[in-house]
Every structure is written in C-alpha cells, then in structure tokens.
User: Fold this.
Amino acid sequence: MTGRGRRNLRATAARRVPGGAPQTAADLACDGVSVSLGGRRIVDRVSLAVATGRWCTIAGPNGAGKTTLVRAIAGLVAYDGSVRVGGAALDRLRPSARARLVALVPQQPVVPPAITVLDYVLLGRTAHLPPLGVESAVDLDAARGAIEELDLGPFCGRHVGSLSGGERQRAVIARALAQSSPVLVLDEPTTGLDLGYQQDVLDLVSAMCRERGLTVLSTMHDLTLAGAYSDELVLMTEGRVVASGPVAETLTAENLALVTRARFRLLDESGRTVVVPLPLARDHR
Ligand SMILES: Nc1ncnc2c1ncn2[C@@H]1O[C@H](COP(=O)(O)OP(=O)(O)O)[C@@H](O)[C@H]1O
Ligand SMILES: [Mg+2]
Assistant:
C-alpha cells in the first residue's frame, strides 16, 4: 500500500455491505469435530461455539490443525462430530446450501490466473444461481459492492494472476463477502497484507459483525490483532483445544505458554492486551 489515494475501507464499512438485502444471521457450533488424514488424527474432538454477530479466533502453532478444522467446517474435508449453523447440520446439506451459510477465505486459495477480478468475485455468487443460470443484477450488485469494500475498483478488469499478493488476497476476501453467507470463516486472512490493509480488512469484518450480525470464525497468528478484534479466543495445539473463552480471560501468559515456546511479554494498552515478542537478553538495549 502506498497511501496514494487509498480509500479508507473503515469509512465505508458501516454504510455498505455486499449482498443486497440484510443477511439472516446464524450461530456456528462445532461439537466433537475430529479429522484424520494420512492415518493421523489432525483435529481431535474440537468443540466451539460462535454466537450470531460474534467473532471467534483460533490461534495456535503451525501444524496445530487450524486449517484442517476450518476446511472441515467449510465442507472441504470429511469429519466426525457435528458442525451446525443456526441448528442445521452442515453435512446433511448440499454444497450450494452449505455455501449459502458458510463462506471461506482459504489460507492458500486456488485462483485461476486468467480470470478478471470481477468474474472471480462473481464466482462467490455461484451458490445463489439457479442451475445453469446466469448472474442477475443482484449478483452483480453484490460482487461490485464487495469489490468496492475491498478497494479493488481499479482492478476490476485486470486478470487475477497479474495482481500483487496483497491485492490478490483482497480479491479472495471480496469473493467470500460477495457470497453473502451469514457465517464467514477466514483462515489467516491478513497474510500478505501490509499493516494498513490488515487493519482495513479486520475493521471491515468487525463492522459486518456488529452491524449485520455476521458470525465470524478466523485463524490468526498475530495474537495482538486477534485480541484486539475478536470476542472469543480458542487456543489449539496438536489438534486439540487447550483453552477457550472471552479474549480478556483467555489471552493470558499462562495460556499462551501452552501453545507457544516464544518469549513474550503481555502489556495492557488501555484494556487491550498487546503481545510483545522478546529478543534474547543480550539484544536488550
Ligand atoms: N492431506 C493431508 N494429509 C496428511 N496430513 C495432513 C494433510 N493436511 C494437513 N496435514 C497435517 O495436519 C497437520 C495440521 O495441519 P494444518 O491444519 O494445516 O495446521 P495449521 O493450520 O494449524 O498450521 C500438519 O501436521 C499437516 O502436515
Ligand atoms: Mg493453517
């Protein structure tokens, strides 16, 4: 981000949310979810609940099973246990019905390079189209709204393959927003974004939680950002939940020691917890 003319996403997040009509909000509940891959149990009896309009972040070390869990929630990998949105068991739904409930921003999205940004974001409307149907004005409006929210207007006609990493990540988020699902799942959504766009994207998601009742489940490495934006925190390691609850109660040195070997100090910044990594003692100046 250069700052040249970049529109502040935060200013418009409250006014306009892609998808046309207000969304039907819904709570997300995972109960005893387990996933085994390659003969190994990667996610081990995970239970969590995210109330309508709340934001829950899953944090934990690399390999903890976070991506596998969110892929299970999005129906991309088979699981035991139950995943429900608004009480409906997702494994009983057709893929399009499931997609109308849960939109996923994957950690490593597969993006066709020779597709324009507008057409790519329109793919988010697939679950809303009748069989063999073409996009309606509502679909175009939702896609254009999402493109505007993510400040991608100038890139509308560009091929996704020609975008920078950060621009591409915003296109992936725009596609998920265009899907207009009441549950948004974001796997490391700020990866590849500079600090300004990280804040813009998180502020936009936060506004959608508060004002439209969007239910959000994210994974995030940055514990300070996770603490600043989320209502609830779930700490995972080796496929299991080791601590969970409201951020203020969960983001503690004792709990973090369960999921990281990093040296850090927790600071209180006007009621928000800041996680400060500490260098080796010899580097203190
Ligand atoms: N298809 C797969 N087959 C076998 N193991 C897998 C597969 N996908 C992921 N894993 C393993 O599952 C573990 C958890 O991975 P992942 O869910 O990506 O963790 P995280 O997102 O927390 O870093 C890792 O050890 C990874 O190698
Ligand atoms: Mg991951």
Observations:
- Residues 66-67, 107, 187 surround magnesium ion (ligand 2) (CB under 6 Å).
